[in-house]
Amino acid sequence: MLRATLRMAILAAVALGLATASAQDFDWRRFEGTSIRFMMNQHPFTNWLQPNVQEFEALTGINVTLEVFPEDQFRQRRILEVSSAAPTLDGYMVMPGQVGAQYLGAGWMRYLDDFVADPTLTNPDLDLEDFFGGALGTFQAPDGLFGLPLQIESSVLFYRADLFEAAGLSGPPETMDELMAYAAALETDTVAGFAMRGRGAAATSQTVNLLYSFGGSWMDDAGNSALASPESIAAHEFYAELMRNYGPPGPANLHWAEVTSLYAQGQAAMIFDANVFRPIMEDPAQSIDVVRENTRYAPLPAGPAGSVPGVLVWGLSVNHASQNPEAAWYFIQWALSKESQESLLLFGVPAARASSWENEEFQATAPADWIEASQVSFERGQPDWNPPVIPVAEVRDAYGQAIVAALEGRDIAAALQRAATEVDQIVERSER
Questions:
Q1: Which residue in 39, 112, 266, 349 is a FRET match for 146, CA 20 to 30 A apart?
Q2: Residue 25's pLDDT is what?
């Protein structure tokens, strides 16, 4: 609710500013001669950006230096510079689900609301409403907007239409109860009715979809772990029943590679995982003929709280200590404009703007049901696919132990209570 309210306030401010700015030409040359530096992850977005950045330089007269590093090195160098308040670093790529709590808590991100509301600094064509709700929401905090999204991914249901037809099932399951019933109907000696991740911490990015859809959350309003809540217990009881009864052998060993391979080789009738794995199901080297010909896609079935998938988002933010924050904001607006996002999507990166996905050339290259399932998930998505805390990895490890316990048939409520207690201890230690 807080994110939704904040989003409406930001959009209202933009609308007010654009009403003033729409009659005048936006001055892209205002900061001509300025030099800015952005730190970038070695990522497909960066591969798209590097050969195109000269267009921005020609448009604005702003000189751009992109420093690109492999992800582990990128994260290390970025935190060194932002924590030392380096004024020569103007902006950077960021995944709020990984470091948002830490960076916001330390004041390392510049809030952009004053820029957004200023018609002399914000292009009238920015159109924040064009970003998927789950994507823009990732960059909204109680104190304001701290960046813009460039890429979004979520999870969808992959299913075999031929097996559905043979089992007398019409269309994909729309509720969790239907998902369980469909899995039971599809289960055979050689084909699992359903599969998803189960390997401890690696599974949390997928089980969180069930957690949200059953009305649960990572943390409660007081900042304590909510993993032992009644909603969380119900979600994990459902997960354990689904995987233990209708999943493949050894579910606690499943990571994304195992899940997608099982499906691609015809050993699972349904899986739930990231939408970006669609190419595996279309690749003759990885997927058998019957899978390639019969794979269909649908959004996450609805639980008691609806269909609430998590979304993973990369974006761009302005460094809090930047000596050229306005020029950095110009660069972000250009890099994430409608034209840039459409080009990015055609390059193969799932763009964060809804309008990009209406491109006819793109739509001709992807299944219509995959596009629809992805778009629905992006709009519904909950941005906290990771715990909204600083020690993300430790909290995921603690939660992951409860996932394994559930899949091994141990007491689920007790396992979640142990995880919740450990999470609270981890978070408390990190705040000392």
A1: 349
A2: 84
Contact call for residues 92 and 319 (beta carbons, < 8 A) = yes
Q: Report domain extents, the chain.
A: 2-152+312-380, 155-309+388-430
**CATH topology agreement for domains 2-152+312-380 and 155-309+388-430:** yes
In the prediction, which pLDDT does 22 show?
A: 53
Distance CA 43, CA 6 (A): 30
Q: What is the dihedral of CA 133, 134, 136, 140, to 10 degrees?
A: 110
pLDDT of residue 24: 56
CATH topology of domain 155-309+388-430: D-Maltodextrin-Binding Protein; domain 2 (3.40.190)
pLDDT in tens, 18-56: 444 553 589 999 999 999 999 999 999 999 999 999 999
Ranges of the chain whose pLDDT falls below 50: 1-2, 4-6, 8-9, 13-20, 23
Q: Is the dihedral of CA 214, 218, 221, 226 positive or negative?
A: positive
- Distance CA(379)–CA(356), nearest Å, equals 14
Tens digit of each residue's pLDDT (9 = 90 or more) over 55-79: 999 999 999 999 999 999 999 999 9
